[in-house]
Write a structure and sequence with these properties.
The chain has nine helices and seven strands, in the order ααββαβαβαβααβαβα. It has 282 residues and is of the alpha/beta class. It has one domain: 3-Layer(aba) Sandwich (Rossmann fold). Strands 3-2-4-5 form a four-stranded parallel sheet, with helices on both faces. Strands 6-7 form a two-stranded parallel sheet. Helix 1 packs antiparallel against helix 7 and helix 4 packs across helix 5. The radius of gyration is 19 Å and the shape is globular. The protein starts with a helix and ends with a helix.
Length: 282
């Protein structure tokens, strides 16, 4: 497989990951809100990829409001007064945690919201910041997902009110491993069911469909990666975001243009660019 075809495969896989499941595609999702649109559970979600996962599970039973829209940058996002209103009216607030939304604690406090905060990364096998996924737990390519239950603590996925909702010590880009997206789906399902038990069967059915789609996606990526020689399984990215993808699917992160997991770091120096070019050429 040549490099251009492989680039298309990776792009296609990432797009599928964000869209996989019934809620995002508009087919197959079930929902039975108590009183039409007004009876739907109001859910706020911090960024668009997580919003897709929530919509897949919630279907027609929830109204999803996204704080950082598609194409936005959660690292540098600046909330507006409208975002305070969104959180204030929410029954649930889904967040990534791990320092991915550094503005969220202040925004939540300013809103005086009573929404339960659900940190979807709790219980996952996290990668320490800067380790670039070299601690590989997926050598056999079999994955580590278990129908969305294995990583989340009893599906609670909720943060302690006294906890800092992001430690900044771990890579927050967990969704690039499809198995993590599956675990997050299980956490979302359980949180929605806990807050809205009348629609628990709906959330369970939608989650089952979403998990089936994600399982197929994971198998697709494993199959396609197997076609690429091991010595060509290398990644260079703008900033350090693909450690989970690299760990799961057997890639090496050769280098990044920005020496940070956040886009907030300064532009690379000429020496850093030269070193990156040397690493790519090696």
């Amino acid at each position: 497989m040549d490099s251009r075809r492989w680039a298309r495969v990776v792009t296609f896989a990432v797009l599928l990951m964000t869209l996989a499941g019934p809620g995002a595609t508009g087919t197959g999702a079930q929902g039975s809100p108590a009183a039409g649109a007004e009876g739907r559970l109001e859910v706020a979600v911090t960024f668009s990829i997580l919003a897709d996962l929530v919509a897949n599970v919630g279907g027609d039973a929830v109204t999803v409001s996204v704080l950082v829209p598609a194409g936005g940058d959660a690292h540098t996002f600046e909330p507006s007064p409208d975002d305070i209103t969104v959180i204030e009216g929410a029954d649930l607030l889904f967040e990534n945690g791990l320092g991915f939304e550094p503005w969220l604690d202040d925004l939540y406090g300013a809103s005086a919201s009573a929404a339960e905060r659900v940190v979807v990364t709790e219980g996952l096998d996290l990668i320490e910041a800067g380790s670039e996924g070299e601690d590989d737990h997926s050598e056999d390519g079999n994955g580590h997902a278990d129908e969305g239950d294995g990583h989340a603590d009893e599906g609670d996925g909720q943060a302690d009110d006294d906890d800092d909702h992001g430690d900044g010590e771990h890579d927050p880009h967990v969704w690039h491993d499809v198995a993590n997206a599956m675990a997050m789906t299980g956490t979302i399902r359980d949180a929605l069911s806990r807050v809205d038990p009348a629609n628990a069967a709906t959330y369970a059915a939608n989650a089952e469909l979403a998990l089936a789609s994600l399982t197929a996606l994971d198998a697709f990526v494993v199959t396609e990666v197997a076609k690429l020689p091991e010595d060509r399984r290398k990644l260079v990215t703008s900033h350090d975001t693909f450690a989970y993808f690299a760990r799961r699917y057997g890639f090496e992160v050769v280098g990044t243009a920005l020496s940070s997991m956040s886009t907030e770091s300064g532009d690379p120096s000429a020496q850093q660019i030269a070193e990156l070019v040397d690493a790519i050429d090696a």
